[in-house]
Amino acid sequence: MTVIKKDDLIQSVADALQFISYYHPVDFIQAIHAAWEREENQAAKDAMAQILINSRMCAEGHRPICQDTGIVTIFVKVGMNVRWDLGDLSLDDAINEGVRRAYLNPDNVLRASILRDPAGKRQNTKDNTPAVIHYSIVPGDKVDITVAAKGGGSENKSKMAMLNPSDSIVDWVLKTVPTMGAGWCPPGMLGIGIGGTAEKAALLAKESLMDPVDIQELIARGPQNRVEELRIELYEKVNALGIGAQGLGGLTTVIDIKIKDYPTHAASLPVAMIPNCAATRHVHFELDGSGPAELEVPKLEDWPKLTFDASKSKRVNLDTVTPEEIASWQPGDTLLLSGTMYTGRDAAHKRMVDMFAKGEKLPVDLRGKFIYYVGPVDPVRDEVVGPAGPTTATRMDKFTETVLAETGLYGMIGKSERGPAGIAAIKNHKAVYLMAVGGAAYLVSKAIRKSRVVAFEDLGMEAIYEFVVEDMPVSVAVDVNGTSVHNTAPKIWQAKIGKIPVTA
Ligand code: SF4
User: What CATH number should be reported for the domain whose range is 314-489?
Assistant: First the structure.
């Protein structure tokens, strides 16, 4: 009988979470690199270049790929001939101790994003515990563990449907993916669970995302069953939607489609779909009683050596920019921002709007400034700020009209598209919305030269910071007339790809 010791389990979980915070899976990097080589839309190609450059920098610097270091999700397959030596800890407790040590590691502090009392006070647990843990009991004398850290932006775009048995799964996926916008930071993967019950389909979808990227091999050898046929059909048709990297339009929206299925009731066809983002993070290992897991460190040669071509970008001085200059920017333009900007995301927006309602003055003057939707990772060593990529902008849409009207802000910087309310407010105030690449957080943080908290310090990573940036790369996503690149570009690329008719 194999005995698994407490310290081996805790250390293995902690090491795995540190490892995946800065090493993308090599198969994922290779697939993004191949997509970058194929891409014909320059804006999408630039976004993928940033994701690849960021990934290499994180592998070298051992800092997180994305500022959202995720909710920990763990699949544990326990061999029936295993005995646990965990002292007075439960298996859940031991795994969560590993999570705690990983997220509080002073050499590479990870952002704690988990809140208890989700429908109430939403208080941060401060150490990213607890993990979401799925157990199964299997034959054998080993413990097989897959550790993943899932970003909130992509998890929020998960979809589920109880289809009629005669309904088309392909039609449902193709109808649903465009409704997910770009907040899941494509290019990535779609995990699809088919069958079982509602909760089983969701679990299958999540588990399928732990498998390696292998769609090109599957296409080369040809499908051997219905699930493989579906994977290929969906891979081709989802990419034919033209959504592209970060929703900017282009040839690659998904680098793979993963599917797991399970027998289901004669009356049912449950389907769940969960996207995995540009910050795909997971690793697999086994414990056999001989000590903690040894994770194979990838070689830096596995990453392409790309450099960001700034020659086609306009340089913008945020301290002197004028409304006339802003009005000249076109959707899809790339800009390099230098100067002073402020940060603010969900909690800061809520508080600002509450203060306006009470007639109170903000502690910071935002007139003529830009606000960046970000919640950075804490800095380590000599860093000015930890990884600081953009968060999903649509969550700020409901505050945008009030904030623009009350502050005189010139614009906002965030991730992915704006919704109708956000776009209407931007047009109304002749403001602008700029997009940074989700999943390029460490790269963005290197453009931040100074950082200090100027308001709402009690909100932690959600406080308002003043950043001084130099050559921070962004794209114009909504111009002063309310034209959104996320509405126009996918239609253009869908038409160019020409496999799916474009509807208005
Ligand atoms: S890449 Fe995008 S969806 Fe993924 S964790 Fe980062 S911000 Fe969230």
Answer: 3.20.130.10
